[in-house]
């Protein structure tokens, strides 16, 4: 038995928070606890987890679940983005440590893969979507066959219907390049406008619409799902299987998009995938984050029968001018996309090799990322 000796975290550009766990025998594992815009809060939670977990055993299979349950249940207050993001970093690192010790990819410890390649997509368009034609062509040259873009700029609760027309034109432009396209409403669109926009987009067959309404409105999402033929996707702002359960029970969502860095890591994402399969709901994990989150998602994607498509943050607008998913790893070829597909990694653990020297250098003086915000013409806050 080798107890946890040290839990470290590293804030690195552009907006990621990496976690490293070392046991008393020198075995290590890496996780990711990125929570965009709330880095310091997650760091505080990781400090508290370190007090609780250092000294606990990390080597054998039962202990990952024991530690996960301790992190989730033993603080009285449960769930939410801060606690679950910190727990995600711990959980992913423990799985990486264990699988490396046994010399196998994590997916072998999850029961073994059901596929050798994964369908993937990348972002185009930015926070204020534009120039999608050139960006679509660039993604095609990188090997992608599917993309995602924001539907709109910021909107009022009731805006002019004419503000929605540009969304339709962007979708038509991207589809004309031969790409499938998901359209992310990003929670920016309130109910009165969301119904109109979904109906305008429907004839042009988006791959899915994402967060057509905020997940805090499950009754409205259920109503919308009965009015349109487009698959509805959401899940990035849901933080556990308990948060997701109502959307499965209402049959309002066709595609679940949990974020492995926000839902409690590999352990909880695997449980969510199995729950979703029982409701005939596809899994398409949310991941506009770093390389560790992506590699962790891939481990669960590999073993999930209902996996559909994986988001990749390669070249996403948040990364411009700072770092990308190749920056902090020694095997960037892991992210090579061909014919819209990504090969499973074969190496032990997460399948990527972290460049610890570069990570430690990057964390020096790294500032916490702050979420952008939108304001309307009257100075009111609008959903970003």
Automatic annotation (TrEMBL):
Matches recorded under Pfam families: MR_MLE_C, MR_MLE_N
Key words of the record: Lyase, Magnesium, Metal-binding
GO molecular function, one term: metal ion binding
Cofactor(s), by name: Mg(2+)
Keyword Coiled coil: no
Annotated ranges, domain Mandelate racemase/muconate lactonizing enzyme C-terminal: 129-231
Domain of life: Eukaryota
Name recorded for this polypeptide: Mandelate racemase/muconate lactonizing enzyme C-terminal domain-containing protein
């Amino acid at each position: 038995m080798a107890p946890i000796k040290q839990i470290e975290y590293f804030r690195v550009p552009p907006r990621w928070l990496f976690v490293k766990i070392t046991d008393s025998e020198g075995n290590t594992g890496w996780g990711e606890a990125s929570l965009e815009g709330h880095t310091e809060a997650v760091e505080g939670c990781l400090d508290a987890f370190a007090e609780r977990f250092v000294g606990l055993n990390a080597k054998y299979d039962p202990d990952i679940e024991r530690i996960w349950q301790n992190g989730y249940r033993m603080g009285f207050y449960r769930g939410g983005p801060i606690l679950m993001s910190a727990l995600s970093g711990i959980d992913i690192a423990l799985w990486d440590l264990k699988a490396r010790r046994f010399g196998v990819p994590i997916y072998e410890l999850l029961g073994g893969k059901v596929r050798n390649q994964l369908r993937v997509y990348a972002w185009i368009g930015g926070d204020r979507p534009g120039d999608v034609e050139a960006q679509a062509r660039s993604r095609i040259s990188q090997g992608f066959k599917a993309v995602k873009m924001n539907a709109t700029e910021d909107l009022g609760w009731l805006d002019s219907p004419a503000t929605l027309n540009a969304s339709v034109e962007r979708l038509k432009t991207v589809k004309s390049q031969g790409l499938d396209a998901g359209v992310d409403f990003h929670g920016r669109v309130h109910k009165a406008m969301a119904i109109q926009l979904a109906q305008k987009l429907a004839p042009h067959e988006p791959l899915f619409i994402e967060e057509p309404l905020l997940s805090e409105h499950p009754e409205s999402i259920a109503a919308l799902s009965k009015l349109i033929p487009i698959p509805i996707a959401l899940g990035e702002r849901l933080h556990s299987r308990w948060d997701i359960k109502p959307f499965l029970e209402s049959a309002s969502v066709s595609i679940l998009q949990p974020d492995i860095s926000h839902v409690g890591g590999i352990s909880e994402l695997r449980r969510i995938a199995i729950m979703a399969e029982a409701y005939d709901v596809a899994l398409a994990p949310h991941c506009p984050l770093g390389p560790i989150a992506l590699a962790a998602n891939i481990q669960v994607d590999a073993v999930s029968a209902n996996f559909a498509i994986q988001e990749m943050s390669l070249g996403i607008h948040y990364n411009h001018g700072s770092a990308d998913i190749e920056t902090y790893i020694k095997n960037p070829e892991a992210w090579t996309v061909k014919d819209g597909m990504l090969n499973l990694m074969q190496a032990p653990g997460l399948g990527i090799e972290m460049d610890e020297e570069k990570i430690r250098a990057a964390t020096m003086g790294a500032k916490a990322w702050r979420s952008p915000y939108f304001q309307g013409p009257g100075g009111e806050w609008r959903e970003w």
